[in-house]
Specification:
This protein folds into three domains: 200 residues, NAD(P)-binding Rossmann-like Domain (Rossmann fold), CATH 3.40.50.720; 87 residues, NAD(P)-binding Rossmann-like Domain (Rossmann fold); 146 residues, Rossmann fold, CATH 3.40.50. It is 42% helix and 13% strand. The protein contains 17 helices and 14 strands. The protein has an eight-stranded mixed sheet, sandwiched between helices. Strands 11-10-9-12-13-14 form a six-stranded parallel sheet. Helix 14 links the parallel strand 9 and strand 10. Helix 4 runs parallel beside helix 5 and helix 9 packs across helix 11. The longest helix is centred in the middle third of the chain and has 32 residues. The radius of gyration is 24 Å and the shape is elongated.
């Protein structure tokens, strides 16, 4: 089989590479020539563990190619996957301009039957718009070439995307055509052989499934963060509550960890887009609106703890931050809670020095010289008034208390991911604040000595 993937962002590059790994001939297309040239040279344009080796291997074998021209690669292709970005508009709805431009280009240049597959996360009804755009371009040419449209949403987690694609929990395909279903079954046959389910459904249901899945996960996160905040008020510990409810098979243990809120390219955008879709259909998704509100509030919780500890004045203080990406095993900082936290700290007059194992370049791109950047996690602690743990990288899971005590001005830790045990922190003389946990150092709150 030969397929085309349009878009070499996170979804497109991972999908194209993994399809090539199963023996499919893949051409990844992108209008960004610089990006395509880098990929041809083996230089990765995104960070994903293991992706560079897999790209190099399949590129060398000739199964994975890169190009800037969709027109030149349509010949003999069985399917075209649209995996371009769908950034949120100002009102929160998904921007489909790039998706529909690809559809129009397909209509202008196709010369045989194709299955056109939306791989990007798109609102309900997008596949119909894609179909209409292709038909309009064909009419301009005076031709009527058969094609079908399908929806095949991705369910990749950044940091484990290759495993998610090659060993999926489920494959969702929306189509109204037997011919399209045959091609999609053939394409995904290697995965079905390994007993991974492929679920066929109508196109609107497939489009909604992706939004519904991400919104459900976001709901679990916001729910637990809300409960964590209540725990602090009533003297409970969220880790105990989490273990208690996670042992219920109806609930399970996934996505019920309290923290500083969710971020990334999917949850924030998809929750907003689904809310907007409902609004356009005269229905208000009240639960998801609350989910979004809780998440925005949660991104300020750790900053508020810092301000409470220092009596509302941190002007002139040096604050260390561990973790900049929205989650471990990625350099993605889109909608990352740390951006809100850093902005709040700077507005309050503090200086910030930060370290992340992977996201330093991305942080420099987003934050410029507004903060300092440490060469390692312990350099960030030199003369720091406090340490804020934001992203739960493995590098940060075990603390060297002797080094922390020697380097930091104050033995003070704000744990935004509940990595550390309050009792152990207290044993080593540290004042510790978690999320929804008993405060080991509540009695040690101090005023800013500079006031």
């Amino acid at each position: 089989m030969k397929i085309i993937i349009v878009g070499t962002g996170y979804v497109g590059l991972v999908s194209g590479t993994c399809f090539a790994e199963t023996g499919v001939d893949v051409v990844c297309i992108d209008v960004d020539k610089q990006k395509i040239d880098k990929l041809k040279e083996g230089v990765m344009t995104i960070y994903e563990p293991g992706l560079d080796e897999m790209v190099a291997s399949n590129f060398e074998k000739g199964r994975l190619k890169f190009s800037t021209s969709l027109k030149d690669n349509l010949e003999e292709s069985d399917a075209v996957f649209i995996a371009v970005g769908t950034p949120p508009d100002e009102d929160g709805s998904a921007d489909l301009r790039y998706v529909l431009e690809v559809a129009r280009e397909i209509g202008r240049n196709m010369n045989h039957y194709l299955v056109v597959v939306t791989k990007s996360t798109v609102p309900i009804g997008t596949s119909a718009k894609v179909r209409n755009a292709i038909i309009e371009e064909q009419h301009e040419r005076g031709v009527e070439i058969p094609f079908d449209v399908a929806s095949n949403p991705e369910f990749l987690k950044e940091g484990s995307a290759i495993g998610d694609f090659l060993k999926p929990e489920r494959i969702i395909v929306g189509t109204d055509s037997e011919d399209a279903e045959k091609i999609m079954r053939r394409l995904y046959k290697p995965f079905v052989l390994n007993n991974h389910p492929i679920i066929f459904m109508d196109i609107p249901s497939a489009e909604l499934t992706k939004y519904a899945a991400n919104s459900m996960l976001a709901t679990r996160i916001s729910f637990m963060n809300d409960i964590a905040n209540l725990c602090e008020l009533v003297g409970a510990d969220i880790n105990s509550v989490r273990r208690g409810i996670g042992s219920d098979s109806r609930i399970g243990s996934k996505f019920i960890y309290a923290g500083v809120g969710y971020g990334g390219s999917c949850f924030p955008k998809d929750v907003k887009a689904l809310i907007k879709t409902a609004d356009k259909n005269n229905y208000s998704l009240e639960i998801l609106k609350a989910v979004e509100n809780v998440n925005q509030r949660q991104k300020e919780v750790l900053f508020n703890k810092v301000m409470d500890h220092f009596g509302g004045n941190i002007a002139g203080m040096r604050i260390a931050i561990w973790g900049l990406s929205f989650k471990p095993r990625t350099d993605d900082m889109r909608e990352a809670p740390v951006l809100v936290i850093i902005n709040k700290l700077l507005e309050a007059g503090a200086s910030v020095i930060a370290y992340d194992p992977v996201a330093m370049d991305e942080a420099r791109r987003k934050l410029g010289d507004s903060i300092e950047y440490a060469s390692d996690q312990y350099e960030a602690l030199v003369d720091a008034e406090a340490l804020l743990l934001i992203t739960e990288w493995n590098d940060f899971r075990t603390l060297n208390f002797k080094v922390l005590s020697k380097l930091m001005k104050n033995k003070l830790v704000f744990d935004g991911r509940n990595l550390y045990e309050p009792s152990e922190m207290k044993e080593f003389g540290f004042t510790y604040y978690g999320i929804g946990r008993r405060l080991s150092g509540e009695q040690d709150r101090v005023q800013n000595p500079k006031t």
